[in-house]
Amino acid sequence: MLYTQNDLQMIQRQKRQRIFLMLIPALVLLAGVIASLAIRVMWLTIVLTALLGAELIACQDLLIRPLTNYEKHLKNMLHGRTREVEGAFSRISEDITEVDGVDFHAVLLIEYDEKGRPYDRLVYFDAMKEFPEVQPGEQLRLLVHDKAIVSLSKGTPSP
After folding, report:
1. Distances from the Cα of 11 to the Cα of 3, 67, 69, 70, 72, angstroms
2. Cβ 87 vs Cβ 110: under 8 Å
3. Which residues touch 116 (CB under 8 Å, ≥6 apart)?
4. Global confidence as pTM
5. Looking at residue 155, what is its pLDDT?
6. For residue 55, is pLDDT > 70?
7. CA separation, residue 16 to residues 11, 59, 142 (Å)
């Protein structure tokens, strides 16, 4: 297994820390907005409200959303439906592909249909994980959720 419950707990802890750190300047700006309303300084209220909105939107977009997407990915990997896929390894892309807000490397496998004709199957390997040393043509047995690899093992195909 590439993922453990510990991975999920680490992401959730990191997400809580970032939310807490995001709220500190937000509360300071909110206190400034309230104070500027109380003393009736319109331009200060406008500036502080704009800064508060910008801070909340930027932090949500840049700090919180990536962790929320990865947390959802981890929950799917740990608790979602999976299926087994077998095939010969063809190649892994060095480029990073973003799927549902999570970074992946595209992996191409060669499988065979009922008539023995080869076809390519695209699956995704988490860019945060280390891909094992695999030679082209080597048989792989994968456990996948949707198109994301949950676990990977080398071996011969089952009959």
Report:
1. 12, 7, 10, 8, 10
2. yes
3. none
4. 0.86
5. 75
6. yes
7. 9, 13, 33
Say if residue 112's pLDDT is above 90.
no
Contacts 24+ apart (CB under 8 A), 69-72: 69/100, 69/101, 69/102, 70/11, 70/101, 70/102, 70/128, 71/8, 71/11, 71/12, 71/15, 72/100
> Distance between CA atoms of 13 and 25, rounded to whole angstroms?
20
Kindly state the tokens that stand for 80: 């979602």
Is 126 buried (19+), middle (13-18) or exposed (0-12) by CB count in 10 A? buried
pLDDT in tens, 73-106: 999 999 999 999 999 999 999 999 999 999 999 9
Which sign does the torsion angle of CA 60, 149, 3, 137 carry?
A: negative
Cα 77 to chain centroid, rounded: 11
